[in-house]
# Entry
Amino acid sequence: MFENLNWWEIGALLMLALLIFGERLPKVISDGLRMLRGLRAMAQNATTDLNRELGTDLQLQDLHPKAFIRKHLLSEEDEAAIRKPLQGLLDDVKQDLNGVRSDLSEVAEAADIKNNRSTTSNSTAMAPSQKFDLDAT
# Structure
């Protein structure tokens, strides 16, 4: 939750909380923690009730639809059968993309060589007395 905040921002938030709540800040913090514990207890009770009703060992992260289907409805063989054609397709696409990448790098190198030759020939053909003001452009 606070992974994007640095120490200065956390300090500023604490100072803001102190200014807003003043002397009541410890009570507000304890009320917030009590509410968080209550929410955790409700979630734990809900998973316990689901485990008892379904007769399985269900965790909270297992309630995600994809994880639920993968864990409770598909066997390992079914999952492997579903993944096999898609894995072949993924391998083919990766191979094609690697070929395109190598072709593009060859074209970029060829264009770079031509640009370097033309730049070198233009710079030698230009009189040394001609200088350009880069700030003027």
